[in-house]
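ARCHIVE CARD
Drawer: 12
Card no.: 0347
Subject: one protein chain, sequence and derived structure
Cross-reference: see card 0346
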Amino acid sequence: MNRIVTMVLKNLPIVPGAWFKLCHYAKNTDKYPEEEKYRHIQYVLQRAVQGGNVDLLVTGKENIPTENGFMLYANHQGMFDVLAIAATCDNPIGAVLKKELYNIPFLHQIAVCTQSYAMDREDVRQSLTVIQNVTEEVKKGRNYLIFPEGTRSKLGNQMLDFHGGSFRCATKSKCPVVPIALVDSFKVLDQKGSKPVSVQLHYLEPIYYEEYKDMKPAELAVLVRSRIEAKIRECV
């Protein structure tokens, strides 16, 4: 059975009400506090993880800054990545998503509620505008997630190169950077069936501005990638 179907069937009693509430928040997003919308999203995602037979091991939550206005950078293995991170990061976060994902029902409602951005990787001007917007939001104290590979790796736990441009959000806002290492996340939705699967999500120690202030965005990208890669190697 498809794992998404399993997630829905195991949560069938709550699905109509949860979906209606999520759609209501998305249509009236300015009328509700960010915290309220985010807690509902977390509730839905946590139920989906449980219903999908996913054993999600999370470490390093103490590394998430206590003050808002930070960036999360994670390796990208599949659509489950953003769901796992949002389900486990208690600080409200938005994300930069490729435009194809932004328009998928359910993901779209979550994106609207979290003030996430859709990026067109083929439109350089639009991509720069998204980076600028995220930078300004982080300066105001909001938190964002970016997958600096730009697309998901189809090589399992092997990463693609990180794009330095995505780190301009951090260098311009001078915010803490939290690397995230995802291990075996691709198995959740990319593999057939719904048998139990184990996924690891590790929040690594934050990199503060004092540590990277003399780095260019591309150099910060290399540093973050190296720390994520080291953690993945440790786990597989």
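Annotation on reverse: The chain has eleven helices and seven strands. The chain has one domain: 3-235.
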